[in-house]
């Protein structure tokens, strides 16, 4: 009799250790903070680009193991990387001398806008980490406006093609991801605080 219960207990013990490690991996598949957060933002804001959010955040390895506030920081870091790289791109364009005076002036304007964006993104991240969500939101909104202003400036001359369309779009969208996450966190939505 003791042998049977020992065997049963051993089987239960073995089952527990073989099956239990599988349970978290199943749950991990169903609880994906990147997908959940991007979906919530897309359902809350009409112009939010779900696929851009998903693919941008997924490129950063740590995003798969962080929490939702961590995703906001990652989005701001991605935006900061974009703005910094765009400054280098603009400087290279200006040193190349391939632009007419009109385009050159707007590139100089964009250079100033992106320099300001770098500073605002740094301040926004600091404000967010201090729990000053409203300040972080204002700064991120200003960064988004900078991207739009850079893009629109070139359209003032008919036929002028903006050489920074992709960079402007990326900066706008990355800032929008961070802005949405901060808004969700400030509202205290339980499903986002997974």
From TrEMBL:
CDD domains: PMEI-Pla_a_1_like. SMART domains: PMEI. It comes from Escallonia herrerae. The keyword Disulfide bond applies. Residues 1-28 form the signal peptide. GO terms for molecular function: enzyme inhibitor activity. This is Pectinesterase inhibitor domain-containing protein. GO terms for cellular component: extracellular region. Residues 29-181 form the Pectinesterase inhibitor domain.
